[in-house]
Design goal:
Layout (H helix, E strand, L loop, with lengths): L12 H10 L4 E4 L6 H11 L14 E6 L2 H14 L4 E4 L10 H10 L2 E5 H9 L8 E7 L9 H7 L11 E6 L11 H12 L2 E3 L4 H10 L4 E7 L8 H19 L8 E2 L6 E2 L2 H20 L1 H20 L4 H26 L18 H6 L3 H14 L9 E4 L3 H16 L2 H4 L4 E4 L9 H18 L5 E4 L14 E4 L6 H9 L7 E7 L3 H23 L10 H7 L7 E2 L5 E2 L1 H14 L11 E5 L8 E5 L10 E2 L6 H18 L12 H12 L41 E11 L8 H7 L4 E6 L9 E5 L2 E7 L4 E4 L3 H18 L19 E5 L7 H6 L11 H6 L11 E2 L11 E7 L16 H9 L10 E6 L16 H4 L15 H5 L5 H8 L6 H7 L15 H22 L5 H11 L2 H10 L11 H16 L6 H5 L1 E3 L27 H10 L7 E4 L4 H18 L2 H21 L5 H7 L6 E2 L3 E3 L2 E10 L2 E9 L2 H18 L3
Parallel strand pairs: 1-6, 1-7, 2-4, 2-5, 3-4, 5-6, 8-15, 11-13, 11-14, 12-13, 14-15, 31-35
Antiparallel strand pairs: 9-10, 16-17, 18-19, 19-20, 21-22, 21-24, 21-25, 22-26, 23-24, 27-28, 28-29, 30-31, 32-34, 33-34, 34-35
Helix pairs in contact: 1-2, 5-6, 7-20, 9-10, 9-12, 10-11, 11-12, 11-15, 21-22, 32-39, 33-34, 33-39, 35-39, 39-40, 41-42
Length: 1272
């Protein structure tokens, strides 16, 4: 390695001896805090670095620096980077390493030589075979006394038993505490076990002289025990009142119905546990009572504010109105408590002293002191006595407390106390730090982590000189040499005593412990036992020599005895019993779920056997492919049985293909890759990977676009030979009435040709796919030679070429111009007649296509109509606003005339249809009707369909998946279906196999149904069937629509909003099986709202919004019209409408609109029912009858007034010139502003929704309402 960049530090003699030792064999370095354990580890790391120079592929190895906490890992990473020139990587959960794939890990392991992180991460990458134990040169484990049973450090070391002993890495443990907890009676046994775990001895100073030398560098503060009197007074009346309020509030919480939240077993399966929501609230209230009793009323006045703020945040995040109302109730009680406390604190101020009395008066030092407990008073007095008259920069103080909220509470008490104490005001600069509340990485934990880092930086930079902290600073974290340490709460373990005392590293440091006077002797005895334990450990180690033997193999094996052997797969990945629970939960979280689902494994207790051993069962969520219940082996503890069940479940998941070769849940990318192996296997020849395609703004072209040299500068020239290559078409599909016109025109001898001045090479035949089927396109190998004689001929061909792309195909944009430079892709498209010559007549006739012309009724009566003039000709519908549509006439129906019966009951005849639809009168009642097909790619459809061709003849749908078949008895199924005859009646279908019906109405949150699973599989199939059949119906029935209109029609019919309305209209929601209170409330609110809309899919429902009337608008007219047309809701003061209005509570001079959520589950159930009908009947005609019955009203309504997406409608209004702002999010509400023009004035409309898409739609709708109102 290159020269080290380490600090200018000189190793002490004992440190060099320890380095020599651990470079030869495994060892646990035990040194007092401050004696330089980390420096020893870094020196050893440098000596063992020879193999780090190369990558693993090149025969090199990697080093691991393992820590117990994220904070310690971050600190040690910085230290290694400062003291060495190694490439160091940090691996903690905050970097989302759990979501990294093998490619990302490979890159990290190649790039970095030293991997620093927390223990569980290293367990994961080794068991997933991302790195092998044999690829590691050295493992340094900081705070290694944690490496006991079930800890990830112990699990990591257990993996060594599966590797050849000669390939094991060096293991170096670091600790200043060898015993966890208070295991004083078996110290020697615990130390022997720790040595066996590490396969090495505990090593420390070799002699007493050296040990005394070490003590010069390590901590040796003056210890002081401050005792205070127990509070002997009777509780104040308000304290009793507060306690009564809390107890009454907890009783209300117990009785309060927050919805269907089933009780669940605790982690240890010991008892059924109440819903976490309620427990969370009660725990906070209990913590407040603790602060009040422990610190006093003044501290309680601050603590209750923390509770109120926490509950206010949770109230805004509540999923249901019931839970939101519960938080409101509790917040009201807490505000009442604060009012009581503040009133009492103000009572100390005498009348006339200060008037009016402000809340800030409560922060007077006399008020703080009077309403504090003896414990808090003793702490404040100690600060005064120790720090009075000192300089701020001479103080480095840590105050340890037990609880997170105690740390915050003491900090704010201290902050206010210092402002009122002149002797300390400029001396003490406080801060606080807290540990993580849980192991999951939430926003709160990330914010706590950032706050802690900021506090540590301030402490090191002398911006603050006192930190009130929980146990986050007890262990390992390197703070500058502290000269004052206060332990405000009771010391409960030997570790806490050693670690907190170890923070006082400065010379002449003070270590102060607080205790009640009645506990004085008990505390003294406990400290004495801690010191005796410390001496016993020293004595135990002093009898050893550095050359003593390592633990034997038998001793090592005893530490890693496993009741459940690991499960190893061919890839080398290994499933450990200790990791099974975590993996099972991770798999469940990877399953598809909505905001109302709960994807968690469900554990249940089984009766104990005759030997007293216990077993556990586990069932996976309904979304999993594993439906059966899995039973554990009988174990001696509930935890062991739970692990056994999880282990068996994970093994089965791997065998079912749910876990990949790294024993991780199969990702979406892997699923796509698996399918692409079959569907896109040829793509690999071109180094293409369908799973790696980028989308959106980051989309990149996979292949470079180049112009062939034959098409470069190849425009035909006057007087020179040009080559016309005919384009030939061949159809590969059977001819039927629907595609006969396509076959006729493609097989015509008249065609088009590519005309250019260069010859083309031989070109391969190219397959193309039309809606009618496959065709083959071939460029003729034998060109026809032409010589253009005049410039006029060339101009004619150029104009014809332009007409094809501009007027006929309509690919021309307003900003395009003709490229006459004769560079890339220079050729002309020319027509050939049946003799394979240029069709000059056609070229001359179609230099451009004139816009469609409307005719007066007189002109139409004067015209003569002959069938031969129309057959195979191009026509337009001049009477529609879409006059650029062009159709080819494929059939002339002389058997029909305008008075013929129309093809449905909506109109009496075609004359009535044209009068109603297009507002025109037919001039000649004897004229024939035309059947047409769209000429360009933009339009398709027919005016009149052939009666002998029906939709079922075109479709052949086969679904044979075994997962879509129910294998259970009808009796079991009917046990879940209550009064479902009514559902079948509303659906207009009687099921032969009701298992399909059961699956269709089962939500993922309903775990009881293990017969069929949930509706998600059916929903996927039903969505496809519904989309296909509705599209075909629109195509056949609404031939007058343009493709854009047809798309709008389909989108309006087949979407979650419309289907949700259908579900509620037909009362399907009443039969749904689910266990989720949030879903229940969402369905109820939407169903109530639909009652106000008479169950119609109204404009309000389609847009999902509520709008509020504009106040003092610039466009308010003098009209006294007070109608409700500007409101999405009518002035029906229904409960549902009032609830929505009350939730929004928006007022002011703004045009605003907000989306109202429709539970997606409602639409999913409708789609699942459609799939159930098809799978049960296996008949598309039957399925279509059901669909049409459900959507008949919408077919009629939407065909007369087509719904259009409001954003698109607004953007197509060129005069509005609408512009949308970026989304602004406040909690779970998103706002988007829309600026637009109306009557030459700039206007604003604001939209709100649960996401940006909904908010944008709402803003667009609000803008359209204003534009519509002032259109005239």
């Amino acid at each position: 390695m290159e020269e080290s960049k380490e600090k200018n530090m000189k190793a002490r003699s004992y440190q060099l001896e320890l380095v020599d030792y651990v470079c030869q064999r495994n060892g646990i370095i035990y040194l007092p805090t401050g004696a330089g354990k980390t420096f020893v580890a870094i020196l050893a790391l440098k000596r063992l670095s020879a193999s780090l120079q190369h990558t693993i592929a090149e025969g090199g190895k990697r080093a691991i620096y393992m820590c117990n906490t994220v904070e310690l890992a971050r600190q040690q990473c910085v230290e290694v980077r400062k003291c060495t020139n190694f490439k160091v990587g940090l691996y903690v959960g905050e970097r989302e390493v759990d979501n990294w794939n093998n490619t990302k890990w490979s890159e990290e392991i190649i790039e970095n030589q030293v991997l620093v992180g927390t223990a569980q991460i290293f367990v994961d990458i080794v068991t997933q075979n991302l790195i092998k134990i044999s690829d590691i040169s050295v493992v340094i484990i900081d705070e290694c006394h944690h490496a006991t049973k079930n800890h990830p450090m112990h699990t990591f070391l257990s993996l060594f038993q599966y590797v050849d002993q000669c390939q094991l890495p060096r293991v170096i443990g670091l600790t200043g505490v060898l015993v966890k907890g208070n295991k004083f009676k078996s110290i020697q046994k615990e130390l022997n076990n720790l040595e066996a775990t590490f396969r090495g001895k505990i090593v420390t100073i070799n002699s007493k002289e050296e040990f005394n030398n070490v003590m010069l560098y390590s901590t040796k503060p003056q210890e002081k025990l401050v005792n205070y009197k127990r509070q002997t007074r009777e509780p104040l009346k308000i304290e009793d009142d507060i306690l009564s309020i809390i107890l009454e509030c907890k009783e209300v919480i117990d009785r309060y119905d927050i919805g269907n939240v089933p009780l669940k077993l605790t982690k240890g399966l010991a008892k059924l546990q109440e819903p976490n929501k309620k427990k969370y609230i009660k725990n906070f209230l209990d913590d407040f009572l603790y602060q009040m009793n422990d610190l006093g009323l003044y501290a309680a006045s601050l603590a209750i504010m923390s509770v109120i703020i926490e509950f206010e945040v949770k109230k805004r995040q509540s999923e249901t109105t019931a839970l939101r109302n519960l938080y409101r109730l509790v917040i009201t009680r807490c505000e009442n408590i604060r009012h009581i406390i503040v009133t009492e604190l103000k009572s100390m101020v005498k009348d006339g002293d200060i008037y009016p009395i402000q809340d800030s008066i409560c922060n007077m030092s006399t008020v703080i002191y009077k309403y504090s407990t003896p414990k808090l008073r003793a702490f404040l007095l100690s600060l005064t006595s120790m720090f009075k008259g000192k300089k701020a920069n001479d103080i480095s103080c840590l105050v340890f407390v037990e609880r997170r909220y105690t740390a915050k509470c003491v900090y704010y008490v201290l902050l206010n106390y210092l402002k009122q104490t002149p002797d300390l005001k400029d001396v003490i600069r406080p801060q606080f730090m807290v540990g993580r509340q849980n192991i999951s990485y939430s926003i709160e934990s990330i914010l706590d982590s950032k706050w802690n880092k900021s506090a540590m930086d301030q402490f090191r930079n002398k911006e603050c000189n006192l930190i009130v902290c929980s146990n986050v600073l007890e262990e390992g974290i390197d703070v500058q040499a502290c000269n004052y340490v206060f332990v405000l709460d009771e010391l409960k373990t030997f570790n806490s005593y050693i670690q907190t005392k170890g923070r006082a590293r400065s010379k002449d440091a003070y270590y102060t412990i607080f205790c009640e006077n009645i506990n004085y002797e008990k505390v003294v005895s406990k400290i004495r036992s801690y010191k005796e334990t410390h001496e016993e450990i020293k004595e135990f180690l002093s009898e050893r020599l550095l050359e003593c033997d390592d633990p034997n193999q038998q001793e090592v094996d005893q530490q890693f005895m496993e009741l459940i052997p690991p499960f190893e797969i061919e890839s080398g990945a290994r499933l450990l019993a200790t990791s099974a629970l975590m993996l099972l939960y991770r798999y469940c979280q990877s399953l598809p779920w909505d905001s109302f689902g709960c994807v968690m494994p469900c554990f249940g207790k089984l009766p104990a056997n005759s030997n007293g051993a216990v077993a556990v069962s586990v069932t996976l969520p309904l979304q999993s492919t594993i439906r059966e219940t899995i039973t554990s082996d009988y174990m001696h503890s509930w935890r062991g049985a739970k692990i056994s069940a999880a282990f068996k479940a994970c093994v089965k998941l791997y065998k079912e293909g749910e876990l990949n070769n790294y024993l991780l849940p199969v990702s979406k990318t892997e699923c796509i890759a698996k399918v692409s192996e079959e569907l896109f296997k040829n793509w690999k020849k071109y180094n293409d990977d369908v799973t790696l395609r980028l989308v959106g703004k980051s989309h990149r072209r996979l292949y470079e676009r180049e112009c062939p040299k034959e098409l470069y500068a190849a425009l035909p020239q006057v007087g020179q030979i040009s080559y016309a290559y005919a384009i030939q078409f061949f159809t590969d599909f059977d001819t039927n009435p629907y595609n006969a016109h396509v076959v006729k025109y493609l097989n015509n001898t008249c065609t088009y040709a590519l005309m250019l001045s260069k010859k083309l090479p031989l070109l391969a035949e190219m397959p193309l796919f039309m809606s009618q089927g496959k065709i083959r396109v071939r460029i003729s190998n034998n060109p026809i030679e032409f010589i253009l004689e005049t410039k006029q001929q060339l101009n004619l061909l150029e104009n014809f070429h332009t007409m094809i792309f501009k007027d006929l195909l309509q690919l021309w944009k307003d900003f395009l111009v003709i490229d006459r430079r004769n560079l890339e892709n220079s050729y002309l498209l020319v027509p050939l007649n049946s003799t394979q010559s240029i069709d000059w007549q056609l070229v001359e006739d179609f230099q451009r296509i004139e816009p469609a012309k409307s005719y007066s009724i007189t002109e139409r009566r004067r015209n003569a109509y002959r069938p031969e003039d129309y057959l195979d000709k191009v026509v337009t519908k001049w009477y529609t606003k879409n006059d650029d549509e062009r159709y080819v006439v494929v059939k002339v129906r002389q058997d029909l005339n305008p008075l013929s019966q129309f093809d449905n009951n909506q109109f009496q005849n075609y004359m009535e249809f044209y009068q109603s639809r297009y507002n025109i009168n037919v001039a000649d009642n004897s004229q024939f009707l035309l059947e047409v097909k769209a000429l360009t790619k933009q339009y398709f459809g027919i005016v009149k369909s052939d009666s002998d061709i029906r939709l079922p003849n075109l479709l052949d749908l086969r679904l044979d998946s075994t997962q879509l078949r129910a294998n259970t008895s009808q009796r079991e199924v009917d046990g879940f279906l209550v009064n479902c005859d009514k559902l079948e009646q509303n659906l207009a279908y009687k099921f032969r196999d009701r298992a399909y019906l059961l699956q269709a109405i089962t939500h993922p949150s309903f775990p009881t149904n293990r017969l069929t699973g949930c509706y998600q599989e059916l929903e996927f199939i039903g969505d496809a069937i519904l989309d296909m059949l509705v599209t075909c119906y629109i195509f056949e029935r609404y031939q007058s629509m343009t493709p854009g209109m047809m798309t709008d029609m389909r989108m309006a019919l087949v979407n979650n909003i419309t289907l949700g309305c259908i579900c509620v209209r037909h009362r399907f929601h009443l039969f749904m099986l689910y266990e989720n209170s949030a879903l229940s409330e969402a369905i109820r609110l939407f169903a109530d709202f639909q009652e106000t809309q008479q169950q119609r899919v109204t404009d309000q429902v389609r847009i999902l919004m509520e709008e509020y009337r504009t106040i003092d608008s610039d466009f308010e007219d003098d009209s006294d019209d007070s109608s409700s047309e500007d409101l999405s809701f009518s002035r029906d003061e229904s409960n549902a409408a009032n609830r929505v209005r009350e939730d929004m509570n928006l007022r002011g001079n703004f045009n605003i609109a907000s989306n109202v959520d429709v539970p997606k589950a409602l639409g999913d159930v409708v789609e699942a029912l459609i799939a159930a009908v098809y799978l049960d009947s296996r008949d598309l005609q039957t399925t279509w009858r059901v669909i049409y019955g459900l959507l008949e009203n919408e077919f009629i309504e939407f065909s007369s007034k087509l719904p259009i997406d409001p954003v698109r409608e607004l953007m197509e209004n060129k005069g509005a010139d609408a512009k949308f702002s970026k989304p602004i999010q406040d909690n779970d509400v998103v706002m988007i502003k829309c600026e637009f023009n109306c009557l030459d004035k700039s206007m604003e409309a604001n939209g709100f929704g649960s996401n940006a898409k909904q908010a944008k739609k709402a803003a667009a709708k609000a803008a359209l309402r204003i534009l519509s109102k002032h259109a005239n």
